[in-house]
């Protein structure tokens, strides 16, 4: 039997904070702490552990899907697995995308339809705010999203 908390108990009354692209890291790029964070996250993800507390200095970095530089970080205290109906996940994602784009096109809707099938985590920040993180878009698993600098190169490198 699953012991995940019901998401309705965790949804704040104000606008929900959503993280599509995200990663866990140490505050000062401490290799030992990064290793410990990685081990804790692997245990959290692979086991039936409904929640996991992280050591002081653990940061969640959120990457924006907009053209603006709006990447944010917060101190992570606890990560929880939550159950949430697909309709509620879809609404969170539609609201999230509406903050960045004027309209929701077919490409974005296809992405949303894919994401709502996956798991969602609730991250509690040091100051008590709740963030919903979509498990399939954890940048610890994938590489960091490309930035504009990644597309520019020194031509001498290729000769």
Overall pLDDT: 77
Strand segment tally = 8
Spans of at least 5 consecutive residues with low confidence: 6-13, 141-159
Q: Give the N-terminus to C-terminus distance in angstroms.
A: 60 Å
Structural class computed from helices and strand pairing? alpha+beta
The major sheet is characterized as: 8 strands, mixed
Q: What percent strand?
A: 25-35%
- Return the string of H and E elements: EEEHEEEHHEE
Instruction: State the shape.
Output: globular
Total DSSP helices? 3
Write down the Rg: 17 Å
Question: Considering DSSP H and I runs of 4 or more, what fraction of the residues is helical?
Answer: 10-25%
Describe, in plain words, how this protein is organized in 3D.
This protein is globular. Strands 1, 2, 3, 4, 5, 6, 7 and 8 form an 8-stranded mixed β-sheet that branches. It has helices at 31-46, 86-98, 106-115; strands at residues 5-6, 17-19, 21-26, 51-53, 58-63, 72-83, 120-125, 130-134. The termini are far apart. It has a domain at 5-83 and 121-136. It has 159 residues and is α+β, with helices and mostly antiparallel strands. The model is unreliable at 6-13 and 141-159 (pLDDT under 50). The longest helix has 16 residues, at 31-46. It is built from 3 helices and 8 strands, in the order E-E-E-H-E-E-E-H-H-E-E.
Task: List the main descriptive attributes of the protein structure presented here.
single chain, disordered C terminus, alpha+beta, 159 residues, eight-stranded mixed β-sheet
């Amino acid at each position: 039997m699953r012991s995940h908390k019901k998401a309705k108990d965790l949804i704040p009354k104000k606008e929900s904070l959503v993280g599509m692209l995200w990663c866990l890291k140490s505050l000062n790029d401490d290799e030992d702490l990064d290793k410990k964070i990685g081990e804790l996250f692997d245990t959290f993800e692979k086991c039936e552990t409904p929640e996991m507390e992280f050591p002081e200095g653990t940061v969640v970095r959120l990457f924006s899907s907009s053209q603006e530089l709006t990447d944010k970080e917060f101190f992570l205290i606890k990560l929880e697995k939550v159950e949430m109906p697909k309709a509620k996940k879809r609404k969170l994602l539609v609201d999230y995308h509406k903050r960045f784009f004027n309209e929701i096109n077919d490409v974005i809707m296809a992405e949303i339809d894919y994401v709502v099938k996956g798991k969602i985590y609730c991250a509690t920040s040091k100051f008590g705010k709740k963030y919903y993180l979509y498990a399939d878009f954890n940048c610890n698993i994938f590489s960091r999203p490309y930035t504009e600098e990644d597309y520019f190169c020194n031509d001498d490198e290729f000769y």
